[in-house]
Specification:
single chain; alpha/beta; 8-stranded mixed beta sheet; 69 helices; 37 strands; 9% strand; globular
């Protein structure tokens, strides 16, 4: 038996909840293992007594709590005990007194626990987790003095209270007050009067009872809601609330508490919910409506007479209007509105009769059908009337011709239909009309009451697109322009407005006008209506304009001062007034008054009637005078100019210019909704919407949910109130469900029984844990949905308003993030061309990914909340939990509510994007649908296609639904929508239904991983195809290849699933809809492509059938029926019109509807008999897909080959080309950049190097791709090549990026060389001239040598004087300056600590280092030090110092790898980095209560700067000696002196040139080899040392096996430890590797030199005379391995010519000179390339970093992630073998060291860790321990903070994958062996007791343990 604390807390109300203030005290909760099932009650009691007798006082309370909820149980217990750990450890210190107190407390609690459990056992037997009983009270503050309490219990057991009871209550020796509570059954029939009377009587009875109780001696009154309500709960709870509210007004204040007591938990929760709302808002709850309690037949009878409320308005429908509704058969629809579901019902009768045969009664339905399906022609279509087609005028008055013609205007038909629609249908209709670019009625009059109505609800969530963003029509800032007419001008206002909005003469009819069909007919309904539409400016910075078109004479509205006049005057920015000029003449006074009342206007006079010149001049004068008297109010234009009618373009230009000019003066631009609301507030709310009560109450409900969501999110997220809201509000579906589907798949694929059982346990844990994550917002939403289920319209408005409020809350934030995303994309595009950009592509991509994640996590919709509810209830049903435990409605209530929503048109999500299906939830939903609907056949139509191929658009057009559509990924997972099918007016009770299934787009670029999207796409395609009776496959343009690949897998998968799931039927029909192509194109070209496609699918089917052994399947048509000649349907473009004002093409709509007719015809006779059958098929396909994961890993079923073999070959090719590029890069850098004379030349050559390397990479990549393709062909995996295309590009981009960075680094080094050294070729030439003069002088040899030495000395001094100084005080002074800036208060400390020779850590930890006097302590640490004498510096500060030292050494190492002198700028950069490191660690110390004084900073920075100055100086000295000026001077002197000696010996010119040549050749070769040597050494080392991270970690662990003391150093910093091991391994191989590499280099060089010299000798024999330049050209042509740059031979080139050349060639070819040069070169290279220099080099560190890859460590044991450099964010971190967390210092809950590893800890449901074990990464902010206990635990080495479960680690560490295992020996064999082998030594190092090692671990041999490290 187990008591679930989270369940217990939820039931008793201590969880934060949405309603009221919950107060509770929890004493104890007990948990026993399930083995008690077989124990009897007597044995249980005996055992417990023995436990008590033998020392049960040692039993710790925390052990009795279900560890799964340990942290929350502590919060209840801490109110009684100081701390859980305090109970355990206080006796050690405070002695026996405390033991007695604790013993008393524990025995009392334990006794209660024993009795409690015993009673449960006796009552119901021993059952697993029967669930706790709820404990109340739930308290609501009624007034300051009175509280309202809802309690669970029996009324007669309430003590010290006056009981309100009815007359049937049996006296129980309490004070009772009998009250005449009404009995519900006595009020039949339930008419409005009777229901209202019942409620009022209940209210009066309560008020009477409360009043009388105030006279009693009791301060508490109690009553039972069951008795008070007498069985009508929902009605009673509201009137109980009314009674309490009324009593609150009249109370005298003597009562202190009102208790509502009952035994039914559900009723009590509902009452608390209802009363909490009523007390807070002082009104009835929005979900309550008295009409739902009225019997239906009574309600109808009453409505036929007069409503009892007296609020009904008398009908004022005129006979003319009534006739219109009767002709259209819409009279009943004025009361019972047409719903969206009715309008969308697929009426198969329509396709059987032509449009001409339809009567007027069918016209409204045809109108709705056309408009909802995107055909704008439907507005103007009216049925043909019985008229004479010849139109004989002479027969007009004849008897036959005098018959009445019953023609109706199209707009009368439309408006009558509009009046008959309910709110949701109007909203859908408006959206479709906007897509069709048709104007909508904005202001209109009620047919029944003639009251003015406004269409605000249909415009809510109404998107107006400006080409870039979508804005809400009501909440966007806009200019309102109203077009009106005065009188009846011949000039068509609507026609002109259409042209004006579109700014063209041939405009289509946005506003209905006389040119439309039936446009000249008189109108009955379409009068005094104001229509609305918007333009979309080409300039996105301009405001969208709102145009209103008044369908009446505005003069009449003015004369009667109607509501239309008042509203438009207050809400319009500018009027456009159209007046016939002759009417202006006759009505000047009246019209003038009207125009003066208008704020601003543009007057357009129609001069189509001639009024005479004089009259015209007269009226012009009057209008001028009127305009002058009212400046800036009027603009006047005319349809004519000088008697001639203006061209339309000119008139439009006049109007647009005047409108623009007027709008410039608008002071404030307001939103349309704001204008209407302001008008309503100032005019008594004369504007109302239909169904206003349901609309407003639905909004109130939505606001309540939004308020709770806001509260819940703000508590979690401080940055943006709704950023990442999906993960906060829907944690179950966001976090738990993806994990659940992974585990479910493992369970389905497992073959071993034990393994399946293990996965079952995992699934149970995940489902159980999700209950603790349920958000209060989802609880509240579920409650409101269930409560509003009887109120259909209110529920619809509630859901609609919730959508609107969520969108309003998020729109601004998401728009801003979308703009940021666009800007970032532009930056990424620019950075590819701008190489000087500060931010790298990688950083931009990371930022882009972050933005994408934020947008995704913040794009909350109602569907996300519905998804969350479905996943929660799926687990509730699966685990048979009681939802009331978690404050949720019952399963039946929620299932019934959602099945009703599906019937009413809400979409249902069958599957998420992670492929999770809430199976049990859907099973209940579909079963409920079977019970609610009388079904004949259910047909399924699914749509499939690539992303952005228009799948949702096709379904929206075909069926009139509203799936989300936009470019990119808008549909996620698989959504379904139910639509009824049948003949209208049919008596057939049973109906057909169509389930249309919309799927996520395939090949989505958002899923960037190479393999995952392929698998996901194939799975989705298989599920959608397998579920549909008919599948519509969308193809956009000519792209068919991807669909060809996907359908191959679908066919193979369906056959494979069929082999194991016999219930799955094959032979589904496929239709292809080919978009944006013409019929002729399809006939000529695409049908051949489809036939080839058909043949390919046949081959796939045959291959699959052979492998699965399924008979009767011979080709693909037996799996998917598809005929290339009949089933390909071409469809042209969706849109017509311009970019900024385009509408759905009617041809597109008609084509789609034709396809729909074919679809429905084909489906005749197909379908499922019940929804349960459909759900079973879905589950079968889902199970089959989950069990056959391997099929979906590849694009095509024919290409299923091994992945790892291909991947290894790919990586090997990439690594090889990397080495080639680095060699080539070294060559080109040496040639172009090593001997530049100035910065400009260097910059120019740098660009040349970059270009050459790019070309080199491009050339080699072609060969690499070719080789890879050849490999795939040999392995018969050629089609897999397409998967690697993008990966190749990514690798080459990374290679280009690295080489560009290397080029830049080389450029910087050469630039510093030029700045720090002045040795150049011109100076060398001058020196040679002087030596030549000395040689030619008549002095002796000794004098000449002395003269040479003097000249050289002067030359050397001159060079050094102009070169950067590396004297001791240079860098020292720079560091001193940095210290003074950083520590200005103590500048002398730097010099005082100068002469200390220790290493950095020894300096800081020495006697003169960091001491206790450098810190201030918090109260906790001070008491710790005072009471226990603990050395906090040693125990707490020094570990931080070690980290600082480690980071300091890493900084120093980075600077020492620079191949140049370190300058002042480097000192500044180092100082800033070290200061940041210092600041970070000072902050860390502060967080644990240790506050560093300024002296700490001074010592740390001073010592750090001193050591850095020494290291910098040492680097500069070494650089100067080996590469810098000193080295260059030494080399130059050696070269000059050799030539000088040759000249002194008077040898021939050829001999001197020979020596000079070899000198310069040696220098040239040395430079190139040195630049390439680190790379070649790394390449050779990788053949002998671990070259993959898995092998590296295994080798490191193998090394630790010989020295167990190193395991703790390895745990502290695995990467540094591995680096040191790696260095040692490389250093051991270095000498031999260097020798081999030099030998290889020199051998190749010797061959090249000999071949080159032979070539030169050959040329010399052919040409007797050669210049030195020509000679070098021939020489370099034969060099293959090393580039020879002639510029590197300046001395040799100065010799100019050789004559005869043969003699020189012979001298150079002398073997002795060559050997001497090679030996000298080898010696110098060995001197220069030292071990330490190599391991400190950039190449070495880069090699190690490439191998190490991911830097993440396991949060529990600090074992490194084994993923390499190609570790993607989607791939979670993994370890080779997890260590025991105790090696890191983590103890279990009993403060013991456990040797089980992380995998085992995660597998256990009870294993927990503390916040301190993960360095507070959990984010917990509350301290659970008082200071005194924190001191004690710190002293004892005990962890602090809250407990967290290991198996919930993914909630905190979402990017870690720790494989669950309950056998450490199986998952971490090495560490099991290590622990048992060195148990004593390990225990000696650990603090605290150590657990024993399992005996079976001792049987592990060392060989097997180490071998396990290398197993793959």
């Amino acid at each position: 038996m187990g008591v679930d604390i989270q369940t217990y807390r939820a039931r008793i109300g201590t969880n934060k909840f949405a309603f009221g203030s919950d107060v509770v005290t929890s004493r104890i909760s007990v948990n026993f293992s399930l083995f008690l099932k077989s124990t009897t009650v007597s044995l249980f009691l005996v055992v417990m007594c023995l436990v008590l007798r033998s020392g049960a006082f040692e039993f710790s309370l925390i052990d009795a709590v279900d560890i799964a909820n340990e942290t929350k149980a502590e919060q209840n217990l801490e109110s009684q005990l100081p701390s859980i750990d305090a109970v355990r450890y206080i006796p050690v210190i405070l002695g026996p007194l405390w033991n007695c107190l604790v013993l008393k407390q524990r025995v009392a609690g334990l006794t209660g626990a024993v009795l409690f459990i015993g009673l449960l056992l006796l009552k119901g037997g021993i059952e697993p987790n029967p669930g706790p009983k709820p404990e109340f009270p739930m308290v609501i503050g009624l007034t300051d003095k009175i509280k309202l309490t809802v309690k669970c219990g029996k009324l007669h057991k309430v003590r010290n209270a006056c009981l309100l009871v009815d007359y049937g209550f049996v006296l129980q020796n309490q004070e009772v007050l009998r009250v005449p509570f009404p009995v519900w059954d006595e009020y039949k029939p339930y008419s409005a009067i009777n229901v209202e009377t019942f409620g009022n009587n209940l209210k009066k009875a309560l008020v009477q009872g409360f009043t009388q109780c105030e006279e009693s001696p009791f301060s508490t009154v109690a009553f039972s809601p069951i008795v008070a309500g007498n069985s009508c709960q929902e009605l009673s709870e509201v009137y109980i609330g009314f009674g309490i509210l009324e009593f609150r007004k009249e109370t005298k204040g003597t009562l202190r508490e009102i208790q509502i007591v009952g035994e039914d938990e559900k009723i009590l929760f509902d009452i608390h919910h209802c009363l909490a709302y009523m007390v807070q808002s002082n009104t009835q709850p929005p979900w309550f409506d008295i009409s739902i309690f009225i019997t239906t037949d009574v309600a109808i009878a009453e409505e036929a007479n007069v409503k009892l409320t007296g609020r009904a308005r008398h009908s004022s429908i005129s006979a003319e209007v009534k006739a219109v509704f009767e002709e259209l058969s819409l009279t009943e629809r004025l009361r019972q509105k047409i719903t969206l579901n009715e309008a969308l019902a697929i009426d198969i009768s329509k396709s059987k009769s032509p449009k001409s045969d339809r009567g007027l009664s069918e016209t409204p339905w045809a109108l709705l059908h056309e408009l909802l399906h995107g055909n704008w022609e439907g507005r103007d279509n009216v049925p043909d009337t019985q008229q004479d087609d010849m139109g004989d005028w002479l027969e007009e008055n004849s008897e036959h011709g005098s018959q009445t013609v019953t023609e109706l205007s199209a707009m009368d038909i439309f408006l009558a239909t509009f009046h008959s629609c309910d709110g949701p249908l109007k909203q859908a209709l408006f959206k479709k009309m906007y897509l069709c670019k048709l104007a909508m009625p904005f202001l209109y009059h009620s047919v029944k009451t003639n009251a003015l109505r406004v269409s605000l609800w249909p415009l809510q969530q109404f998107p107006i697109s400006d080409g870039n963003l979508e804005r809400c029509a009501l909440t966007m800032k806009t200019n309102v322009i109203t077009f009106v007419r005065l009188g009846r001008p011949q000039f068509s206002k609507s026609t002109f407005l259409n042209r004006l909005i579109q700014n063209r003469n041939d405009a289509f009819s946005i506003f209905f006008n006389k040119e439309c069909k039936s446009g000249l007919l008189s109108r009955v309904l379409f009068k005094r209506v104001v229509e609305i539409f918007w333009d979309t400016p080409a300039n996105e910075n301009k405001l969208i304009r709102t145009y209103l078109n008044v369908r009446s004479d505005f003069a009449e509205e003015f004369n009667f001062q109607t509501d239309i006049w008042k509203c438009l005057i207050k809400t319009t920015d500018l009027f456009a007034v159209i007046i016939e000029l002759n009417e202006m003449v006759s009505n000047f006074d009246n019209y003038s008054k009207l125009l003066i009342e208008i704020p601003k206007c543009v007057i357009l006079f129609s001069e189509h009637n001639d009024i005479g010149k004089e009259t015209k001049i007269s009226i012009q004068d009057k209008i001028k005078k009127l305009r002058n008297n009212h400046k800036d109010k009027f603009k006047v234009i005319s349809s004519h100019e000088k008697g001639t009618e203006k061209e339309t373009e000119k008139l439009l230009k006049n109007m647009l210019s005047n409108i623009a000019e007027h709008l410039k003066t608008c002071q404030a631009v307001l939103m349309l909704e704001e204008r209407i609301n302001k008008f309503n507030e100032n005019n008594g709310h004369v504007l109302e919407e239909e169904e206003n009560e349901d609309l407003s109450l639905g909004k109130e409900l939505a606001k309540c949910v939004m308020s709770e969501m806001t509260t819940e999110i703000v508590q979690t997220n401080d940055k943006n109130s709704f950023q990442n809201c999906i993960s906060i509000l829907t944690p179950v579906s966001y976090f738990d469900s993806p994990q659940l589907i992974k585990t479910l798949r493992l369970q389905n694929q497992a073959e071993d029984r034990n393994e399946r059982e293990k996965h079952n346990n995992d699934i149970y844990n995940i489902r159980k844990e999700c209950f603790s994550n349920i958000s209060n917002s989802v609880r509240l939403l579920a409650k409101y949905l269930v409560n509003t289920r009887p109120l259909n319209m209110r529920q619809k408005y509630f859901i609609g308003w919730l959508r609107i409020l969520i969108e309003q809350k998020l729109s601004h934030f998401l728009c801003q993030k979308a703009k940021d995303k666009v800007k970032l994309l532009d930056m990424i595009a620019e950075s590819k061309n701008d190489h000087t950009s500060e931010t790298s592509d990688k950083e931009n991509k990371v930022r882009f990914s972050e933005l994408d994640g934020i947008i995704k996590l913040s794009s909350l919709t109602v569907e996300h909340l519905f998804r969350e509810m479905s996943h929660i209830y799926d687990s509730i049903i699966e685990l048979e939990e009681d939802p009331k435990t978690y404050c949720l409605p019952s399963v039946n209530d929620c299932v019934g509510t959602f099945s009703n929503l599906i019937i009413e048109g809400e979409t249902v999500e069958l599957m998420t994007e992670s492929f999770f299906m809430p199976r049990r939830w859907l099973q209940n939903i579909f079963k409920s649908l079977d019970g609610r609907l009388s079904v004949y056949k259910i047909k399924t139509i699914s749509v499939l296609g690539l992303q952005s191929s228009g799948k949702s658009t096709v379904l929206n057009t075909m069926f009139g639904v509203q799936f989300a559509v936009r470019s990119g990924r808008c549909t996620t997972g698989i959504q379904a929508r139910l639509l009824p099918v049948g003949q209208r007016n049919s008596d057939n009770e049973k109906s057909n239904y169509v389930m249309i299934i919309d799927s996520e787009g395939l090949r989505s670029p958002l899923l960037s991983d190479v393999w995952r999207p392929t698998s996901l796409d194939n799975e989705l395609a298989t599920f959608v195809t397998g579920l549909g009776n008919l599948s519509i496959i969308n193809v956009m343009g000519e792209k068919l290849a991807d669909m060809k690949d996907i359908l191959q897998v679908v066919i193979h998968a369906l056959i494979k699933i069929k082999s194991s799931q016999s219930r799955i039927a094959l032979g589904h029909k496929c239709f292809f809809i080919h978009h944006n192509v013409t019929v002729s194109f399809t006939d000529v070209y695409m049908k051949e492509v489809y036939r080839d496609f058909d043949s390919t699918l046949d081959l796939v089917a045959q291959a699959a059938v052979e492998s699965e052994g399924i008979p009767d399947i011979h080709n693909a048509k037996h799996v998917l029926k598809f005929d290339a000649g009949k089933d390909v349907h071409p469809v042209q473009n969706l849109w017509q019109g311009g970019h900024f004002l385009r509408r759905i093409s009617p041809e597109y709509s008609k084509s789609i509807l034709e396809i729909k007719d074919k679809v429905m015809t084909h489906l005749t006779g197909h379908g499922f008999k019940s929804f349960s059958d459909l759900s079973q098929l879905a589950f079968d396909v889902w199970d089959g897909i989950n069990s056959e994961k391997f099929i979906f890993t590849f694009r095509s079923s024919i290409e299923m080959k091994a992945y790892f073999q291909t991947e290894d070959h790919f990586k090997r090719l990439v690594r090889n080309i990397g080495f080639l590029v680095r060699d080539e890069h070294a060559n080109q850098c040496f040639i172009y950049m090593s001997d530049c004379q100035n910065e400009n030349e260097l910059k120019k050559n740098r660009q040349e190097v970059v270009s050459l390397i790019k070309a080199f990479i491009s050339r080699n990549t072609a060969g690499m791709k070719k080789e890879f393709s050849k490999f795939l062909e040999e392995q018969q995996m050629a089609n897999l090549g397409s998967l690697y295309v993008q990966r190749f590009e990514n690798e080459f981009q990374e290679l280009n990026r690295r080489t560009e960075n290397e080029t830049k680094r080389y450029f910087d080094e050469q630039l510093v060389k030029m700045e720090t050294s002045t040795i150049n070729s011109s100076r060398r030439a001058k020196l040679r001239e002087k030596t030549a003069e000395i040689v030619s002088s008549p002095k002796s040899k000794d004098d000449k040598k002395a003269e040479f030495d003097k000249i050289w000395s002067d030359f050397e001094n001159e060079i050094k004087a102009k070169t950067f100084s590396i004297k001791d005080d240079c860098l020292y002074n720079d560091f001193a300056g940095q210290f003074s800036q950083t520590c200005s208060a103590t500048p002398n400390v730097f010099h005082q600590r100068k002469d200390r020779q220790e290493r950095f850590y020894e300096r800081l930890s020495g006697t003169d280092g960091i001491t206790k006097h450098d810190f201030n302590l918090s109260k906790t640490n001070y008491c710790n030090k005072l009471l226990f004498g603990r050395d906090f510096v040693h125990d707490m500060v020094y570990p931080w110092l070690r980290r600082i030292v480690g980071e300091f050494e890493s900084l120093i190492s980075n600077y020492k790898t620079k191949r140049r002198l370190l300058l002042k700028s480097d000192v500044v950069g180092f100082a800033e980095s070290f200061k940041q490191c210092h600041d970070k660690h000072v902050k860390d110390l502060k967080e644990i209560g240790i506050y560093a004084k300024p002296s700490f900073s001074s010592k740390l920075l001073a010592d750090g700067f001193h050591i850095a100055s020494v290291e910098f100086l040492h680097h500069n000295v070494n650089y100067d000696l080996n590469t810098g000026v000193t080295y260059q001077l030494k080399k130059c002197k050696h070269e000059m002196y050799a030539i000088f000696e040759e000249d002194l010996e008077d040898r021939n010119e050829k001999s001197a040139a020979c020596i000079l040549f070899f000198f310069e050749l040696e220098n040239c070769l040395k430079g190139v080899i040195l630049s390439k040597l680190p790379t070649s050494l790394c390449k050779r080392l990788l053949l002998k040392i671990p070259n993959a991270k898995r092998k590296l970690i295994a080798s490191v662990c193998e090394n630790i096996a010989t020295d167990p003391s190193e395991v703790f150093e390895y745990t502290r910093d695995p990467k540094q430890f591995a680096l040191e091991w790696f260095k040692r391994k490389c250093l051991g191989l270095f000498d031999q590797i260097l020798e081999d590499e030099l030998k290889c280099h020199l051998t190749d060089i010797e061959k090249d030199i000999k071949n080159a010299l032979k070539q030169c000798e050959k040329q010399c024999k052919q040409h007797n005379e050669l210049t030195t330049n020509e000679w070098l050209e021939h020489f370099e042509k034969k060099f293959k391995h090393i580039p020879i740059d002639p510029k590197r031979f300046p001395g040799f080139l100065n010799k100019n010519k050789f004559k005869p050349a043969v003699h020189f060639a012979t001298a150079v070819l002398e073997e002795r000179q060559l050997k001497k040069m090679l030996n000298s070169l080898k010696d110098e290279l060995k001197i220069y390339v030292t071990k330490n220099d190599f391991t400190d080099s950039y190449d070495f560190r880069n090699m190690f970093d490439d191998i190490w890859g991911c830097h993440e460590l396991c949060p529990f044991c600090r074992e490194p992630c084994i993923k390499g450099k190609d570790h993607t964010p989607d791939s979670k971190h993994e370890c080779l073998q997890h260590k025991p967390p105790s090696f890191k210092g983590v103890h279990d809950k009993f403060n013991k060291n456990c040797f089980e590893v992380c995998n085992y800890e995660v597998a256990l449901r009870t294993s927990a860790y503390r916040c301190s074990d993960i360095n507070g990464k959990c984010g917990c902010t509350k301290s659970k321990l008082p200071d005194i206990f924190a001191i004690m635990f710190s002293f004892l080495g005990i962890q602090s903070g809250e407990f967290h479960l290991y198996n919930n680690f993914s909630e905190i560490f979402k990017d870690w994958d720790i494989r669950i295992s309950k056998d450490t020996q199986e998952c971490s064999r090495f560490w099991a062996w290590f622990s048992v082998s060195y148990y004593d030594k390990i225990c000696g190092k650990l603090v605290g007791k150590c657990e024993n090692i399992p005996e079976r671990w001792k049987r592990i041999s060392k060989e097997k343990a180490i071998a396990s490290l290398y197993e793959t």
